[in-house]
Design a protein that fits this description.
It is built from five helices and nine strands; from the N terminus they run αββααββββαβββα. The protein is an alpha+beta fold. Strands 1-2-3-4-5-6 form a six-stranded mixed beta sheet. Strands 7-8-9 form a three-stranded antiparallel beta sheet, covered by helices on one side. Strand 3 and strand 4 form a beta hairpin. The N terminus is likely disordered.
């Protein structure tokens, strides 16, 4: 009981910190690199995440600058033009509860070539454990939660493909439902009600369709069947 009371106090403190915290955005523009890196106010209220993102920011900026300078020098020797590298990292909040903070990390990078590349990762932070956990950690072992999500996801994905392609069939892997191992899962609370009522599933470019189609984002509603598969300690973070 004391442990539960202590966690409630800590969670309340985090929410107060989140209200007072501000989003962070760092920008660097030079002849070699156009760089942006930022995170949400909710993430900025957690010191461990601030330290992690700050270290990653510095590492990425230094590495890309070095790569760009070497590339520029090589292109100059060969008489080729050089276009400044670009990278934008945006870490936004998909939702939060007293225990969990669901973050979305979107990154776009251009280092030459026909076009840039983009990708999305999930960061699910457990305030009680003070660490990042996997989406799968939320569910009981052997619960079969992926099976429960598979059918609705594939149906919704095919409907979105049909809409974008105006009914055209591309054939091959881009008409198949991707393996869940190549997708990104995030609990989401789009209306900010303090409980997750959706599961957002993101397929990066080339995963569910060709590059020109961009990423595919499918939101599935949380229902009683899915909630029953959660571990007891996480059920309070979800609603429908």
């Amino acid at each position: 009981m004391k442990r539960g009371i202590a966690f409630a106090a800590v969670a309340a403190a985090f929410f107060v910190a989140g209200v007072n915290a501000k989003p962070i955005k760092t920008e660097l523009k030079s002849k070699w690199l156009d760089f942006e890196y930022g995170w949400s106010s909710e993430a900025n209220a957690i010191p461990a995440l601030v330290a992690r993102f700050t270290a990653d920011l510095k590492k990425q900026r230094a590495s890309l600058t070095t790569q760009a300078q070497k590339d520029a020098a090589d292109r100059k020797k060969r008489g080729f033009p050089f276009n400044a590298y670009q990278q934008v990292t945006s870490i936004t909040t998909e939702g939060e509860t007293p225990r969990l903070l669901s973050l979305r990390n979107d990154t776009y990078a251009f280092t030459g070539g026909a076009h840039g590349n983009s990708g999305t990762k999930a960061i699910l932070w457990d305030r009680k454990l003070s660490k990042q956990i996997d989406f799968s950690t939320l569910f009981r072992n052997g619960s079969g939660y992926l099976t429960a999500l598979r059918g609705p996801y594939c149906k919704a994905l095919n409907a979105e493909r049909k809409k974008r392609r105006q009914g055209e069939q591309l054939g091959g892997e881009f008409d198949q439902c991707p393996a869940f191992s190549v997708l990104t899962f995030m609990p989401a609370d789009p209306k900010h009600k303090g409980r997750f009522n959706q599961v957002l599933i993101v397929a990066d470019p080339y995963v569910a369709g060709p590059y020109v189609e961009g990423s595919y984002e499918i939101s599935l509603p949380v229902n009683a069947a899915l909630t029953a598969k959660l571990k007891p300690e996480y059920r309070g973070s979800f609603g429908f």
